[in-house]
Every structure is written in structure tokens, then in C-alpha cells.
Amino acid sequence: MLILPRGITDFGEPEANENVSDLEFKQFCYDLLVVFDYTKFEEIETYSGNYHLGKLSNKKIQTLVLMNKHYPIIGLADEYRDGNANFIDSHDVALYINAKLRTGNQKSKYNYYQCLNLSVLNKDITDKTIMLLDHSELEQLKYWNPIKYKDVIFNCWD
Q1: Helix, strand, coil percent values for the chain (each to nearest 5)
Q2: How far apart are CA 69 and CA 86, in angstroms?
Q3: pTM above the 0.85 mark?
Q4: pLDDT, tens digit, for every residue of 136-154?
């Protein structure tokens, strides 16, 4: 069971030194581009301040990469529209991501990227899974009423 860390919603104060910068996200996506024979990377702007979004593509396939801006937690999708992602499983890409060490953040307890599979993203959150969130995050959860992990980790709350 994934216990959501404090600050993952973009409303609480995240643990120190955990943020994922724009540069780190772009380097991460370019690495995927090379390893998995994509030919193009495009960063996509969202109205959410909570996650990065990039599109990797070649002539056969496109994969959207969503990465939480506060923790190196990733979801893969094949479609994204108006803040809603159609998350997918991509076993080869996920295995590669989950073995990938973050660089430049040596004091982090999140030294590895974590690509969540579809079954985790679609799991319901519980009181236990949100127990580390701070008061302001819990207020947002009460207001927005998310049900699944994906709704919290990759939210578009304003």
C-alpha cells in the first residue's frame, strides 16, 4: 500500500529536497526518448501546478508522462484532455523507470523514480493512505472529494 507523502497535493509543505524541477523532468523524458526509440519529446503546459506533463512519440506510438512536481512519482498515459489522463500500463517502460536512480538529490529518501501501474493509480484512497498529509491537504481532499490515488497525485485543484 502506498502511503501518500506530505505535500504531494501541492497544498501542503512537502518534505525538504524532494521537488522535481523542470530540468530534471526534461532530462528524465529525454532519457526515455533515447532508451525506448522515441523520436520526439514535447513538454505540454497544464493548468495544474502539481505535475509535469510530457509527450514522447514516434511514428507508431505516443506515451504521455505525468510526474508529480513534489515527488518523483510517475504515471503513463496514452491520452490527456482537460486535466484528465487515460492512464496505461507499459511494463517495459515502468521496469526501466523503477530501476532509475535520481541524480543530484543525494539527501533524498526518494532516490529512485516510481512509476505507478494502473492497478495502483485506480485504487481507492483510505484514511491510512492519506495519514501523512497535512491539515491544508486534508481540507482540499474534503472539498474536492477525490476517490483514487490518481486523483490526488495528479490533481488539477486550484
Answers
A1: 25, 25, 50
A2: 19
A3: yes
A4: 999 999 999 999 999 999 9
